[in-house]
Write a structure and sequence with these properties.
Distance between the termini: 84 Å
Shape: globular
Number of strands: 0
Structural class: mainly alpha
Length: 248
């Protein structure tokens, strides 16, 4: 028997319950877990740990310093060296060693160009990895006063801050890359400041590597002075800033 008619004389429609929404499948839940910020951060840490392990076990910087690949020469060898340089910097190989090798293998001018290209490549790879895999997980952790101040400086004055970080040798290359990636700094200011700010230090090491066979030559002595003076200035500035922060 149907329900009673409504007051206007029409027949009331029976309410049909909506079908229950299907639950997300196992594949969808796994995909969300794998794409979560902490899962991506774990992947970044695993990649960096793997790269560091490869450096310790295989010592790839030795291949670069001995002119790998031996069958290549000229521009081809410089291109291969530049790519290897960039990948080695992502794996925490010290840039001074690679800069010296670039100067020793290719001379001052081509060695400088090759080292700068590898520097920008390595910085770009590290910045991209940090931005893609680490930013979403790490940004909510920026709660301390110093961390918020550093993030604000990098986000609002990206080019100027990164240029200063590249000019002063006391800031580790990898640390500047990943700190910039966590901030809101853009790609263009980061890469441009890296390219310009890395010129003086890279040129000094490239010239020193190219003139290492003549350690008493004026070019070698000037290059070593250009390496030592900024390092000394950076140490003094860092020491004064440390005491200033303690006094606050």
């Amino acid at each position: 028997m149907l329900d009673a008619s409504n007051r206007s004389g029409g027949t009331a429609e029976l309410a049909v319950p909506a079908p229950p929404l299907p639950r997300a499948g196992l594949a969808a839940r796994c995909a969300r877990a794998l794409l979560s910020p902490w899962a991506r951060l774990s992947l970044l840490l695993a990649l960096l740990a793997g790269a560091g392990t490869v450096v310790l076990l295989l010592d790839p910087q030795r291949l670069l310093t001995h002119g790998w690949p031996p069958q290549a020469g000229g521009i081809a060898a410089a291109l291969v060296f530049g790519v290897g340089y960039g990948l080695c910097t992502v794996a925490f190989v010290p840039r001074p060693l690679l800069n010296l090798a670039a100067g020793a293998l290719f001379g001052s001018q081509l060695g400088l160009a090759t080292a700068l290209a590898g520097t920008v490549l390595g910085a770009g790879v590290a910045f991209g990895l940090g931005r893609l895999l680490g930013q979403d997980a790490l940004r909510p952790l920026l709660r301390g006063r110093l961390l918020r101040a550093a993030d604000g400086q990098l986000s609002r004055h990206g080019f100027r801050s990164m240029l200063a970080a590249r000019l002063f040798p006391g800031v580790p290359f990898w640390a500047a890359n990943y700190c910039a990636a966590v901030s809101r700094m853009g790609w263009l200011p980061f890469l441009l400041a890296t390219a310009l700010g890395s010129v003086p230090n890279t040129a000094a090491y490239a010239v020193a590597g190219a003139r290492a066979s003549a350690p008493t030559s004026p070019a070698f002595l000037i290059a070593m002075a250009c390496i030592a003076v900024p390092a000394l200035v950076g140490t003094v500035v860092a020491w004064r800033q440390r005491h200033r922060l303690r006094g606050r």
